[in-house]
């Protein structure tokens, strides 16, 4: 079990939602002192994941207010605990969704600590000392080093930040299905948002034929020309959906809102897999017929393990993969969240927490 100090003496400025209006306001709070297994991180950038919005507005009904969101965190280490291995002051590091896991169960021992039953998230979690965890919409973070990763030197820190959640969430299922090393498959990505646009980049980089399935006609040109997708299907176009039936091996569904699975399942070949990472607040209807007539599978998953997150970042460093971002100052968080609700972002907002984007890249 992670060893920490219960002393919450460090004063931190951040931004929080205080109620289900989801409005983000400046908020000052306390963090624990740097324990033996901890590193202290000066936060430079934090992505705005749609999960932050779900939580800020209590759409999943589990929010503990005040909520300091943010789990796409990048910064520089300013302090290192005595038992920390592999990190030193000045390192460029990232923290994603995980704050703590038991370190002892079968999942923790097999580098899948993201499936640990005792997992605590970096915000809206309860740490071992009983404190509520606060995320990356803040100037500083104290993190157990076992949930911290290195950011490759060649990647710009702002555009790399969303890899900490969006990136690993789409990398992990592709890896799990052997799609990192076996090119030439037909991959579908449903929803071209923060997660979706990184999924397109990965699937392309792994050598697959990539089809975007989207509700937004305005995204077709960008999907094909900027992100490199081979095909684009407008999900509201019955003819396009009909033509593409039984054409895809694997589909990643990254959609944040309510939608029907039936037409998506029909796009899969026989024995194809629909992998769900999007988390709409309402339950899906799962129709039996496309499953039984196509021997298809429906699965889901949450982020990825820490070892796999480092592997993903190293891959991004090697092939220069980053996210397409809109960098904002903290006073624009509410505006950004409103635009996220309206599906008006290309493709991830990142908060310039330290206000020094000109100085550090
Ligand atoms: N499983 C995990 O570990 C994990 C990790 C991170 C996030 N998530 C969840 O994944 C989802 C996506 O996150 P994100 O940050 O990528 O969100 P995002 O940037 O808002 O992208 C979601 C995309 O889904 C499409 N969409 C939205 N509402 C829709 C609707 N009602 N019907 C059909 N399509 C719709 C839109 O793409 P088009 O315009 O192309 O249609 C939109 O850009 C969220 O629910 C988030 O909580 C899960
Ligand atoms: Zn996220
Ligand atoms: Zn565990």
UniProtKB/TrEMBL annotation:
The keyword Oxidoreductase applies. It holds the Pfam family ADH_zinc_N. Residues 16-351 form the Enoyl reductase (ER) domain. One of its GO terms (molecular function) is oxidoreductase activity, acting on the CH-OH group of donors, NAD or NADP as acceptor. Keywords: Metal-binding, Oxidoreductase, Zinc. It comes from the Eukaryota. CDD domains: CAD1. The keyword Amino-acid biosynthesis does not apply. This is Enoyl reductase (ER) domain-containing protein. InterPro entries: ADH-like_C, ADH-like_N, ADH_Zn_CS, CAD-like, ER, GroES-like_sf, NAD(P)-bd_dom_sf. GO terms for biological process: lignin biosynthetic process. Its cofactor is Zn(2+). Belongs to the zinc-containing alcohol dehydrogenase family. PANTHER family: ALDEHYDE REDUCTASE.
């Amino acid at each position: 079990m992670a060893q920490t100090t219960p002393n919450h003496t460090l004063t931190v400025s951040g931004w929080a939602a205080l109620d289900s209006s989801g409005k983000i306001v400046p908020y000052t709070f306390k963090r624990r002192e740097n324990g033996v297994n901890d590193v202290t991180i000066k936060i430079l950038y934090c992505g705005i994941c749609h999960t932050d919005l779900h939580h800020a507005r209590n759409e999943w009904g589990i929010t503990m207010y005040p909520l300091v969101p943010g789990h796409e965190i990048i910064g520089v280490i300013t302090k290192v605990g005595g038992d920390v291995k592999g990190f030193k002051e000045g390192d460029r590091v990232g923290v994603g969704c995980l704050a703590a896991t038991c370190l002892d169960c079968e999942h923790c021992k097999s580098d899948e600590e993201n499936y640990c039953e005792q997992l605590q998230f970096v915000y809206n979690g309860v740490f071992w000392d009983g404190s509520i965890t606060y995320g990356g919409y803040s100037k500083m973070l104290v993190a157990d080093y076992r949930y911290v990763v290195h950011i490759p030197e060649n990647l710009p820190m702002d555009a790399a930040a969303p890899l900490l959640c969006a990136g690993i969430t789409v990398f992990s299922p592709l890896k799990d299905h052997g799609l990192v090393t076996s090119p030439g498959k037909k991959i579908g990505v449903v929803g071209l948002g923060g997660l979706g646009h990184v999924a397109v980049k990965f699937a392309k980089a792994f050598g697959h034929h990539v089809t975007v399935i989207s509700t937004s006609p305005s995204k077709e040109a960008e999907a094909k020309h900027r992100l490199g997708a081979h095909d684009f299907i407008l999900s509201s176009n019955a003819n396009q959906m009909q033509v593409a039936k039984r054409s895809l091996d694997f589909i990643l569904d990254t959609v944040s809102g309510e939608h029907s699975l039936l037409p998506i399942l029909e796009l899969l070949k026989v024995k194809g897999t629909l992998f769900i990472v999007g988390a709409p607040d309402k339950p899906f209807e799962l129709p039996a017929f496309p499953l039984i007539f196509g021997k298809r599978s429906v699965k889901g998953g949450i982020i990825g393990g820490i070892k796999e997150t480092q592997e993903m970042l190293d891959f991004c460093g090697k092939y220069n993969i980053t996210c397409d971002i809109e960098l904002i100052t903290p006073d624009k968080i509410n505006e950004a969240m409103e635009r996220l609700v309206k599906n008006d972002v290309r493709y991830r907002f990142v908060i310039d927490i330290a206000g020094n984007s000109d100085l550090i890249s």
